[in-house]
Amino acid sequence: PVVDMEALQQALAEEKEKSEKYLANWQRTQADFVNYKKRTEQGKMEIVEFANSTLILKLLTVLDDFERAFDSLPAQFEKFSWLEGIKLMYNKLKATLESQGLTEIKANGEPFDTHLPAAQALTLR
Fold it and tell me: What Gene Ontology terms describe what this protein does at the molecular function level (predicted)?
């Protein structure tokens, strides 16, 4: 049998070109999928962060209520053991919020600092 080397080399070159295109398409698809996974993971993290911040804001009002209640408590209640339990719950709630990155801003008697993020959020509304 007579083999046409030139035709074989041409066919081989065409197949090699096809395989390179397939490989490039696969690599592009793989990169797109990795980017998609990163975007969806980032989206999930943003949702969780938003939900956490919403919950923390709601828990802050509970913390404020505890503090107002403690401030208005008559001195004769200090002797009751159940009050100690309530103070422990308050401290646990406060520690939980601090573990999530919340820090108390000491502002009693100090001028309103508009450079603090919370102050900026309040002044923008």
Answer: adenyl-nucleotide exchange factor activity; protein homodimerization activity; protein-folding chaperone binding; unfolded protein binding
Is residue 37 a part of any domain in this protein? yes
> Model confidence at 81, in pLDDT bands (50, 70, 90)?
very high
Query: What local confidence, expressed as pLDDT, does residue 114 receive?
Result: 66
Structural domain includes residue 31: yes
- Residue 122 clears pLDDT 80, i.e. is over it: no
**Domain contains 54:** yes
Q: Provide the residue range defining the domain that includes 52.
A: 5-102
Closest CA to 122 of 109, 101, 99, 105: 105
**b or e along 36-72 (b: 16 or more beta carbons within 10 Å of the residue's beta carbon)?**
eeeeeeeeeeeeeeeeeeeeeeebeeebeebeeeeee
